[in-house]
Amino acid sequence: MWVERGRAGFLRVALCLLAGLAGGVSLASGSARIDPGLSQRLEEAMPGERVPVVISFALPEAQVALAGRDRNDWLRRSSRVAAREVLAHLTALEGEGQVANLRLLWLTRCVLADVDPLLVPGIAALESVDGVALDRALPPGFLDGDESGPNPSAPVSETLVRMNVDEVWAEGFTGKGVVLALIDSGAMTAHADLADHLWVNPGEIPGDGIDNDGNGYIDDIHGWDFLENDPDPQDQRNHGTKMAGIAVGDGTAGSQTGAAPDAQLMVLARGATHGSVWEAMQYAIDNGADVVLSGVTVPWDEDPRPDYASWRDAADGELAAGILHVNSAGNYGNQQSHNPIPYNLGAPANSPAPLLHAEQAIPGGVSAVIAVANVVLSSETIASKSARGPSEWADIQATVDPSYPYPMPPEYQDYDYELGVTQGLLKPDLAAYGDGSISTSSNGGYQQFGGTSAAAAHIGGIVALLLEADPGASPAELAEALFASTEDLGIPGFDQYYGEGLVDAWEAWDALTNPCRQLGGDADGDLICQDNDNCPDVPNTGQLDTDDDGDGDACDEDDDDDGELDLSDNCPLIANADQANADGDQFGDACDDCPNDADNDADADTICGDVDNCPGTANTDQANADGDLLGDACDSCPNDADNDADADTICGDVDNCPGTANTDQANADGDLLGD
Question: How many CB atoms lie within 10 A of CB 664?
Answer without folding.
Answer: 9
